[in-house]
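Hey team,

Filing this mostly as a record. A colleague (T.K.) asked me to run one chain through the structure pipeline before their review meeting, and I want the input and output archived in the tracker in case anyone asks later how it was produced. No errors, nothing strange. Just documentation.

Input sequence:
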Amino acid sequence: MKKNIFLKGVAVFVTLLSAIVIVIFVTDNTYLFNGVRLTYLKGEKSSNIDDGVDFPYNVIETSEIQPWEKDEKYNQIELSNSLKEELKKSETTAFLIIKDSKIIKELYFDNYNQNSLTNSFSMAKTMVTLLLGAAIQDGFIKSLDQPITDFLPEFIGDDHAEKTTIRDLSAMTAGYSWVEDYHSPFSNMAKAYYGNNLEKLILSINFNKESGKEHEYLSGVTQLLSIIIMRTTKQSLSEYLSLKFWKPMGMRSNALWSKDDPKGMEKGFCCVHSNARDFAKLGRLLMQKGNWNGNQLIDSTFVSKMITPNYKAFKNKPAIYGYSLWTDYQYNPIFYSMIGHLGQVVICIPSKNIIICRLGKKKNKTKEGAIPGGNVYYYVDEVLKII
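Output structure:
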């Protein structure tokens, strides 16, 4: 009797499991298998900073290394007890403070070190806009005001898309019907992160409102911009980033850029795997208005646009975003920041000539501010207490 009940239970379970699998295939949600395999079956609840080896990737090659200088007080300055505790609670893996282009504080935790490659998450969006600036400078794209349908004919006939410009993609003012949902396994974000046909997904989503009016943070529009850069330069994002920035800046190591498929494209909205010192170099490039050791890698006017709040997109609320950079010009001191999932940040404080880079596994909300995520206000305040 017990055996029969057990066998019936097994049969019901197998039937239900088979039905679920069939539904997943029929609804074209096979990315869920990949998502489960790379999260729950590995003891994770979501994407993590060490998942670079879990996906196909392109290598971003460097050349002759140009190392950071160390300040004469390198690692002599003591962090506050509050900051030490915060770094511990948030499972920080790397924390750098750079003053006057020299490293003054450098800490690594939990067996991570200067060579550890971890996930940038959305800090990659800033890199994509840097590539946009390079593509304009190289003549591949005419200007920020060029219509996206010049490069994405798939959207011809979509009235809102036809009035959308390159500027709208970089400034996050595109009326693209993407839903920025980090929790649902059926969201666009989950499909983009764990799926294997990113271009098909991105080009299948339409525009549902007028662009250029208001800021709305959408990872999908960065992927649209990535497609445009790849089509115009006829290079992968990794190749172009290596050529225009990684090699000229003498990055410490090659980096990895995760892809959807071995023959596919990079996830431009996220997932450059690099080390803290090299991420911080991007902050220095921005603070120097695109100049690197006397070489103007990208037009200074373009960088100024990136780091300046796009005020017209923030009516009756704080202007906290420029062109793929978070900004707060109302805070004292003014700062701007690259920010990624789980609190990856590169914060630039131009008036103090300070760069802060924090990488880690969790994000805390120690101090609230206009800019969401990343705990940027807390890091700015705490660092200025000791520098």
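Quick notes for T.K.: Residues 102 and 352 are 13 Å apart (CA to CA). The first strand starts at residue 57 and ends at 60.
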